[in-house]
Amino acid sequence: MSKVMHFSREFKPTNTIVKINNVKIGGKFFAIIAGPCVIESPEQYIETAKIVKEAGANIIRGSVFKPRTSPYSFQGLGREGLKLIKELGEDLKIATITEVMDPRDIKITANHVDIIQIGARNMQNYDLLKEASKSDVPILLKRGMSATIDEWLYSAEYLMVEGNENIILCERGIRTFSTTTRNTLDLSVIPLLKMRTHLPIIVDPSHATGNRDLIAPVSKAAIASNADGIMIEVHYNPDIAKCDGAQSLPPEMFIELIEQIKPILEIEKKVVTGTSMNLEEVRRRINYVDEDIIDLIANRLHLVPALIEFKSKNSIPVYQPEREQQLREKYEHLAKKYNISPELIQKIFNLIIAEMRSLQKQKMNSDD
Ligand SMILES: C=C(O[C@@H]1C=C(C(=O)O)C=C[C@H]1O)C(=O)O
What we know:
alpha/beta; TIM Barrel; Chorismate Mutase Domain, subunit A; chorismate mutase activity
């Protein structure tokens, strides 16, 4: 029998939700990662971060180790820049992400940022993957520019072998014959990957298109294709950007982008956690939670026929006080863990359990 891969739905049928403090990615939780391509100066990074946070981003990007095509291009601030990222994350109370290229930088970076990015050029740098796999920090793995889905997923497997489940995949466009856009965005990879993996998948429209005018429509398409997030390059003044100026959004275009994607996020029932909410947004989230609660209660009640089948065959009484007592102890423990009232939880479960008993009795009587 072939080995079950950690990334596969076979290994884990439910969607993985990567958690970074109050930010969640995966399932219904959508990530908006934004910020400069490369951190040029404290001012440029902090100002841009404040703008994108205010507009609705929940994770700040910004590279300090930068893989540039030309050795003469600005290479980033290096390890010094990591301190800036840590300070920004603490000051703005926001999650941060930065790229690592050298296995020797993994540890120190993991101590300064919330998510480590492994870039397209390093997707198959197996020494880097192995070193990153030793850390339990969430890792965003970009697709190599000519990587197949299998090659990409096997690179994710390298990251997961030591037990790290917090892996996010990122489609950033692949190399094709077409030079109209910087790369060719492979949107169909999102629904395809969703069938094969439980890991969240986000899209990087900035690198996929290389053209700021294409970012809003492509972002909308990514959300409609069930992506779990977008990563957008924003610069407080793209005209003076040291890297990727043409694909960086100026602040006003980022604010407009957020406005444009809102209705699509609503249609797809996606939620951006860790951002401030108005009353309408709070109520939208309450509605989703209520739907989930009802779905879960229905799941529990729908177990009644299976209970009855077993109990009637084996002449087991409906009421099982010992089992109920065990459950009550568990509810108490869980209520404390989640810091909610144990009395409230007991009351809710008293109703549900009474209903379970009553449904079993009704069904048994009607079967007589
Ligand atoms: C579901 C069962 O039947 C009854 C209802 C219970 C419940 O709703 O959890 C628990 C014990 C029984 O009194 C069971 O036996 O597990």
